[in-house]
Amino acid sequence: MVHNRPFYESREMFYDCHIWKHPNYPIHLHKHLEFAYVAGGELSMTVGGVEYIVREGECMLVFPYQIHEFSSKGDVDLTLVIADMEYMGEFQEELAAYELKSPFFHKEELSSYGQKILELIRESAYDTNVPYQLDKGLFMVLLTDVFHNLPLLPRQKNVDLSMAQKLLQYINENIMQEISATEVARALGISPFYLSHIFSEELKTSFPTYVSQQRLSYACDMLRSTTKSVTEIAYDTGFGNIRSFHRCFKKQFGCTPTEWRNENRREEIERAGY
User: Fold this and answer.
1) Contacts of 32 (CB under 8 A, 6+ apart)
2) Are 163 and 190 within 8 A, CB to CB?
3) For 21-33, how does the pLDDT look when each residue is reduced to its tens digit (9 = 90+)?
4) Has this prediction a pTM greater than 0.85?
5) pLDDT of 95-122, one tens digit each?
6) CA-CA distance, 61 to 81, in Å (whole number)?
7) 149 φ, ψ to 5°?
8) Domains plus CATH for the chain?
9) Of the candidates 156, 123, 149, which has an alpha carbon nearest to the alpha carbon of residue 61?
10) Helix H or strand E encompassing 258
């Protein structure tokens, strides 16, 4: 697969673990940590411009904002975990300060405990009745094993980032504040026209749409994980007023923030078996 222009993938879910039988996905980036484990078959995975052939027993760990893509022929038994580390509560220092010497490794490079946890994660991906909290806990243990057993290098912030990546990183770091395209362009030393061009041509969206989607993603996480009022969440996520928040939320999800929160909590209770 050859794609010269990556797109930014905006995800509502802050944790997802599933099996992917035919992994094909064009070049993209996102703010999530992504872990791939091949239990059968093989696939091509490109990370940071380097192509890897990932076969049975091998893994890939993609850090936030790293450009990557998947390509496969035939069936693959791929376990894929995608996690927003900002809401996982751990490993923020590791993610900010270090990166793996190589994103590619074999499961046998993990400890015996890490290998067992990896198999449990794979089993949990097949079982829709596994509580989210258990899935998350298993993944946190796996990351602990990865960071203790694989070589790390100091992370060089922004050295290899394209302007598109710098834009997305800056926006996500300042998403809770009132930001405009002009302010962001000035902060990064580019023209508002060039900023608009990057969003429309490379990221296939617009600046206002991207900012709104990211704020809504943060809002969903707060609705799910906190007891803050809808009004507090609206202001905490950078919306200028509650009316604007309600309008954007209903346009995106087809319901009010309160309705979304109630439905999400019902689903979590059902998954937990309470």
Assistant:
1) 11, 64, 82, 83, 84, 85
2) yes
3) 988 888 777 778 9
4) no
5) 667 778 899 999 999 999 999 999 999 9
6) 10
7) -115, -10
8) 7-154 (2.60.120.280), 163-268 (1.10.10.60)
9) 149
10) helix 257-272
